[in-house]
């Protein structure tokens, strides 16, 4: 007997290009930022990794793009990325951007 397909079986997997476009549009949710801004942004980066928006090896949006979109100083977003790197979530490479660490899901 055949079972009807569920919604999850009918939805095609997003293409690599579509996933990359979604990642580049990702921005921390300004409405959810409470307390120290850099910690809240780092928490949202972690949540995006844990929920699968970003996967190991993915490139994060640039710090400048995030700072400009949210209206925060670049130093604030830089501190958030440093905090995410300290947590082992991302690796920052000078002039090459920040990528999700392959160790980020091990914790």
TrEMBL record:
Pfam families associated with the record: GntR (PF00392)
Top-level taxon: Bacteria
Family matches, as InterPro entries: HTH_trans_reg/aminotransferase (IPR051446), Tscrpt_reg_HTH_GntR (IPR000524), WH-like_DNA-bd_sf (IPR036388), WH_DNA-bd_sf (IPR036390)
Location of the HTH gntR-type domain: 35-103
SMART domains: HTH_GNTR (SM00345)
GO molecular function: DNA binding; DNA-binding transcription factor activity
PROSITE patterns: HTH_GNTR
Transmembrane intervals: none
Key words of the record: DNA-binding, Pyridoxal phosphate, Transcription, Transcription regulation
Keyword Cell membrane recorded: no
PANTHER family: HTH-TYPE TRANSCRIPTIONAL REGULATORY PROTEIN GABR (PTHR46577)
Name recorded for this polypeptide: HTH gntR-type domain-containing protein
Native species: Paraburkholderia caffeinitolerans
